[in-house]
Amino acid sequence: MCVKGLCFLAVLCGLAASGVLQVSGMRIYTSGEMEAVNGTDARLKCTFHSSAPINPNLIVISWTFRPLKPGREESVFHYQQRPYPPLDGIFRKRVLWGGDIMGRDASIILQQVKFTYNGTYICQVKNPPDVHGAVGEIKLRVVTTASFSELLLLALAIGGGIALVVIFLIIVVSCRRCKKKRLRHVEGNEEAPRKERKDPTACHPSRAVHLYMSETSIEIDSSDGMISDPSTPSSSSSESEGPSSDDDDDDDDSD
């Protein structure tokens, strides 16, 4: 029994080494379901992963369409070294290559979708020696208007953008107000000491009265521009007044 088991394992190892027994490493990823508004373009996204190195000259990509109603499958797109759009059928001149072989992208674009495009789209990729594996499917539903979920996402995106703009404006306005308050506070602190300063030309009230009294005791003679003191009478004026009174007495005696 042990000998038979060892022989079986040896055969399996030999087959695996020779490449006869090989597990396929091709894996395909699609969105599963999607919606498209009538008359718009729809991108059918299909990506793949292969355990073998990507060879652009050997890789083969094919897209087929299975309608909702019973009917045969229809070729949508074919790629082998270069894209081959359909030459007839409902997808004629309506399919564009939107993938990248080296980027492991096998997507296509349906232009101006119609209600007849409702159905299942099948994406199959072969990259020898990875020629076996599951295929990717996308169920497309063409609608008149966007569904509630898509409208909700669009509204959330627009609302989020508007909210960000409003928050940014509020922050800017708040910063400007803070700057203005700081400037006013600084200007108020600078003006306060200036108001408390005294006029260097001013003096104490007692000194001001003294100066006023001294200024009022000085008079200017307009005849010769000389300054005289009116508070002290001159001796000449007193002498001239004296004789005049004596003369008056003499006149009285003579009478």
UniProtKB/TrEMBL annotation:
Biased composition (Acidic residues): 244-255
Localization per record: Membrane
Domain Ig-like span(s) in chain numbering: 39-144
SUPFAM superfamilies noted in UniProt: Immunoglobulin
Record flagged with keyword Glycoprotein: yes
GO annotation, cellular component aspect: plasma membrane
Protein's membrane topology: Single-pass type I membrane protein
UniProt cross-references to Gene3D superfamilies, sorted A to Z: Immunoglobulins (2.60.40.10)
Keyword line: Disulfide bond, Glycoprotein, Immunoglobulin domain, Membrane, Signal, Transmembrane, Transmembrane helix
Domain of life of the organism encoding this protein: Eukaryota
TM segment ranges: 151-175
NAD among keywords: no
GO biological process, alphabetically ordered: cell-cell adhesion
InterPro entries hit by this protein: Ig-like_dom (IPR007110), Ig-like_dom_sf (IPR036179), Ig-like_fold (IPR013783), Ig_sub (IPR003599), Ig_V-set (IPR013106), MPZL2_Ig-like_dom (IPR029863), Myelin_P0-rel (IPR000920)
Bias-annotated ranges (Basic and acidic residues): 185-201
Spans annotated as Disordered: 184-205, 220-255
Signal peptide: 1-18
Listed Low complexity bias regions: 228-243
PANTHER family: MYELIN P0 RELATED, MYELIN PROTEIN ZERO-LIKE PROTEIN 2
Family: Belongs to the myelin P0 protein family.
Annotated protein name in UniProt: Myelin protein zero-like protein 2 isoform X1
